[in-house]
Amino acid sequence: AAGLAFVALAFADLGSRFERDGGPYLYASAAFGPRPGFAVGWIAWATAVISWAAVANAIAAYFSTFVPGAAGPRGARAIGALVIVVLAAINYRGVRLGARVSTLLTIAKAAPLVLVAAATLPRLDPARLDIFTPPGGSWAGFPAALRMARLTCQGFDVAPGIAGEVRGARRAVPAAVVGSLAFSVAVYVLIQLCVSAGPARLAGSERPLADLVRAVAGPAGATFVAVNALISIVGYNAGTALSAAHYLTVLAEDGFLPRSLATRHPRFGTPAAAIV
To answer: Rounded CA gap, 1 and 274, in Å?
Structure first.
């Protein structure tokens, strides 16, 4: 987070200078010209769509907890496609509606973590928080752990992408960029403390949070984790549904893509063609 803070602060500073969709595309265009700007904008859109597809495909794995067989190839594709279509339809009807759904899902996925923390942190032994001694005394796994930690702190670059839809963007976008990084750090530090308060065997677990909840709540813990994972994954999908289309709109407005992608719905005011 400390390393990414330099990037986040740059995004926050640049976000205070623009009141238009596009985020990284606008910044690259202003600094280096239209062609590098187009490359950055196109990569930002492609990355959003590909990651959206990958995450939507994972919904079936947790949904199969309740509907056995849903994780098969056909089931996974059908469930993922249904979520994408529903969230796209919500954002087609209105940016404010899409933002509210995304916010609601964010709150819903964070709330269970508070319950886990309340149940586990009182058991935390401070002696187990020796962060400078890796298991076995070897630092070989540290680079891989650092890469994983970096992934948990990314995503602050999404906020500037929809600045054109935000009231008072020059103040709101910098606050959202810095706030999202700070919130992510707080959540993942809390998760690590919760896991540290659990059984010692969690250090080698592939699913430490799930195993922690199972140890605290018994068999019901598996259902709890599956529900929370579903909310979290759909929440990510909702955020991408809200932001991804705006890269296409701004590229179309500047002549890199057909102008039809920049048109707004006459009733809802949304970038309807880009969403579709």
So the answer is: 33
Q: Tell me the backbone φ, ψ of residue 22, rounded to 5 degrees.
A: 125, -35
> Which amino acid does the sequence have at 86?
V
Q: What pLDDT, in 10s, does the model give residues 207-217?
A: 677 777 777 77
Q: 121: closest CA among 186, 184, 195?
A: 195
**pTM listed for this prediction:** 0.79
| Long-range contact pairs involving 5-14 (C-beta distance under 8 Å, separation at least 24) | 5/181, 8/156, 8/177, 8/178, 8/181, 9/178, 11/156, 11/157, 11/159, 11/160, 11/177, 12/173, 12/174, 12/177, 12/178, 13/174, 14/160
74-98 residue pLDDT tens: 888 898 899 999 988 998 888 888 7
